[in-house]
Structure formats: C-alpha cells, structure tokens
From TrEMBL:
Gene3D superfamilies (UniProt xref): 1.20.5.2280, Zinc/RING finger domain, C3HC4 (zinc finger) (3.30.40.10)
Keyword Zinc-finger attached: yes
Ranges of residues in domain RING-type: 131-167
A GO molecular-function annotation: zinc ion binding
Record flagged with keyword Transmembrane: no
Key words, A-Z: Coiled coil, Metal-binding, Zinc, Zinc-finger
Biological source species: Penicillium salamii
Region (Disordered): 35-63
Name listed for the protein in its UniProt record: RING-type domain-containing protein
PROSITE patterns documented for this protein: ZF_RING_1, ZF_RING_2
Coiled coil spans: 77-118
Length: 181
C-alpha cells in the first residue's frame, strides 16, 4: 500500500521535450483530498510531433465502429436476401411444375372418363342384343306384342300368354332373326 502522499506520474513517449519536466519535479497531491490525475496533453493533436509507434499500432487496431458493424450486417442481410431469393425462385419453379402435373392429371382423368363412357356405351349396345332371361345372344328372337324380346329357347320354356317382364296378356309373337355381323 502506498502512503497518502504518493503521486502518480504519467509520461507519454509522445510528449515533446519542452513539455516534459526537466528536473522531474512532480506536483504532489494527496489521494484522499484530491483524486486528480494530472495528464499533460500531447502535441500530436497540434501536429508538432508525430504519434508514437504504439499509437500508430493502436489506431490500426481500432475496434469496429458502428458504421463498419452496420456494413457487416448489411452484407450478411444481402447474402441472406440472395439466398431467400434463390429459394423463392425454387419454390416458384416447383409450384409451376405442380400445376403442370395437376393439368396432366386432369387431362388423363377426362380421357379415362371418356374411355369409360365409350366402354359403357359399347357394353349397353351389346346388352341390347342379350336375352334378359338367360343373358345370351341368340340367333332367333321372339318379339312379343308388348315390345319385349325373348330368345327362342327361353320362349319355349315360358308360357307366352303373358309377358314375363310386364305381365301383359297377348296372343302371339313375331319371330325375328337379327343380323349377326
């Protein structure tokens, strides 16, 4: 521990000799009464003496100023913005691809429905010539007077005084031979 009459001497290697005390007498103050530290200004600000190597190095190694921090932040945000733009472009491309695929699916579904409709029409045409009792295509038909048709083998099995479909009574039928192509 130092005595109360101890002094602090601050010397700067940049001080010109005229500012330095020749006899090195330092003003003594008590730390308890006056906690002042005497610092003499350097002449570097007035331009008479060049700054020391220590100060030059310190100036080179100055901490980042607020402007440089903002520049770094802008740079990182710009990089992030570019990445986001690339990802947005990829998303747009994928959405366009999905739309194309959906259009293709809709076209294929409509084609499939058309084919199913054609198939159903073809089946219904074939079924027109099928006997409604035995579900076969006969060579000879019995056309009843009510308008229904029965194949010849089924007509022999059924009583032809009434129609097996509508139960109307009639007294005859017309024999038909459809064109087999």
């Amino acid at each position: 521990m130092t005595s109360p009459s101890s002094t602090i001497v601050i010397e700067d290697d940049e001080l010109p000799p005229s500012w330095r005390s020749a006899n090195l007498q330092v003003q003594r103050t008590s730390l308890r009464t006056s906690p002042e530290i005497l610092i003499e200004p350097n002449d570097a600000a007035s331009g008479s003496i060049e700054p020391s190597r220590k100060r030059k190095r310190a100036k080179r190694k100055q901490p980042d100023t607020l402007d440089t921090c903002f520049k770094k932040l802008r740079k990182t945000f710009d990089q992030r913005d570019q990445e986001v733009e690339k990802l947005d472009q990829k998303v747009e491309n994928l959405e366009q691809e999905v739309e194309k695929q959906q259009k293709q699916v809709q076209e294929l579904q409509s084609k499939l429905l058309l084919q199913e409709d054609r198939h159903q029409e073809e089946l219904s045409r074939r079924r027109i010539l099928d006997c409604k009792i035995c579900y076969e295509q006969p060579d000879c038909w019995h056309n009843l007077l009510c308008g229904h048709m029965i194949c010849e083998p089924c007509a022999k099995l059924v009583d032809l005084s009434t129609c097996p479909f509508c139960r109307r009574t009639f007294s005859g039928y017309v024999k038909c031979y459809p064109f087999a192509g």
